[in-house]
Design a protein that fits this description.
With about 300 residues, the protein is of the alpha+beta class. It has 2 domains: about 15-135, Roll (Archaeosine Trna-guanine Transglycosylase, Chain: A, domain 4); about 145-300, no CATH class. It has 10 helices and 6 strands, in the order ββαβαβββαααααααα. A 5-stranded mixed β-barrel has the order 1-3-4-5-6. A hairpin with a 5-residue loop joins β4 (about 80-90) and β5 (about 100-115). It starts with 12 loop residues before the first strand and ends in a 17-residue tail after the last helix.
Length: about 300
């Protein structure tokens, strides 16, 4: 049987199990799944059989809108940047399936997709019945892009010619990133509040992050979505000093299209990701106020996150 943890040669490349989903997974975000298909039961069984000390992870990649993985070549059906999901809980079910909880881990780029074995189960010594992929890890790219993104925060001829003292450059970059993160945090709180009010939520007892975003007109509402708003506000507090965590909270929780979320996942620099989110949130706020309605329940805001 093919091993779920098989690795490739070198250069930061590895072969990992693949789990296509309708939307991207982001680092730090909790992913609960109900596993019932035989091929994914086999995937979970392979992961749980790995030796102690080996990380039990699989890759999550979003399916392009309008494509079905089983009807076209998988490499064409999937976006090319994904995120690993690290198993944290596995609960076997009476029907042979599993309830699992995983946490988003590392970002990767899809290089090639390996087809599964025919049928629902693999033959001993053969390929597994689920997709696998050759991926390259993006840690080095992230480090380089974070540095480049910080340089975007420097302005003026001195910055262009590279003669700003290192400590000054670092301070300016950090300060401008904090300003950008604060702007996105405020926009997201406003966005959550606007969605909640349009779904009949009441602000009684909500944390300050959301209360401060409400206008007097918003305070006339029914008590409906307060719990979801409180959960999102709690997550905002959790990442209040973590610009990267904030960027992934917004990307995973805002009611964005798959394409928008994928663009945010593909961006390696936190500063640029936050700048994209600032533009997207302003756009979504304008649409909310113009349409006066939202497409999905507010409970989707309460996407659990973890710092691990």
């Amino acid at each position: 049987m093919g091993e779920a943890g098989d690795t490739g040669s070198s250069s930061g490349r590895e072969i990992i199990p693949l789990f296509p989903l309708e939307t991207p997974l982001f680092p730090g975000v909790v992913l609960p799944l109900q596993i019932f298909e035989p091929r994914y039961r086999a995937l979970v069984a392979d992961l749980t059989s790995l030796p102690a000390g080996v990380e039990r992870r699989f890759g999550v990649v979003a399916i392009r809108q309008g494509w079905e993985v089983e009807r076209v070549a998988p490499a064409e059906a999937l976006f090319d940047v994904g995120c690993t999901a690290v198993l944290r809980m596995v609960a076997p079910q009476l029907d042979g399936g599993y309830r699992i909880a995983a946490v988003g881990g590392e970002r990767f780029r899809l290089l090639d997709v390996l087809p599964p074995a025919e049928g629902d189960a693999d033959v001993d010594g053969g390929d597994p019945p689920y997709l696998r992929a050759l991926v390259e890890w993006l840690a080095e790219e992230e480090a380089a892009e974070e540095a480049a993104g910080d340089a975007d925060g420097l302005v003026g001829p001195d910055a262009v010619h590279g003669i700003v003292p290192a400590e000054v450059a670092t301070g300016v970059a950090r300060g401008s990133l904090e300003v950008l993160a604060g702007n996105v945090r405020d926009l997201f709180a406003r966005y959550v509040a606007d969605v909640a009010v349009r779904q009949g939520g009441a602000p009684d007892g909500l944390p300050d992050e959301v209360l401060d975003a409400l206008t007097p007109e918003d305070l006339i509402a029914e008590d409906d979505a307060a719990g979801a708003m409180a959960a999102t506000a709690a997550l905002l507090r959790e990442v209040s000093d973590d610009a990267r965590g904030l960027s992934y909270l917004v990307a995973s929780s805002a009611l964005l299209t798959t394409e928008d979320r994928q663009a945010l996942l593909a961006e390696s620099a936190t500063r640029r990701r936050l700048a994209m989110e600032s533009r997207m949130l302003r756009r979504e706020l304008t649409l909310l106020r113009a349409l006066g309605a939202v497409p999905v329940p507010l409970r989707q805001f309460a996407t659990p996150m973890t710092s691990n």
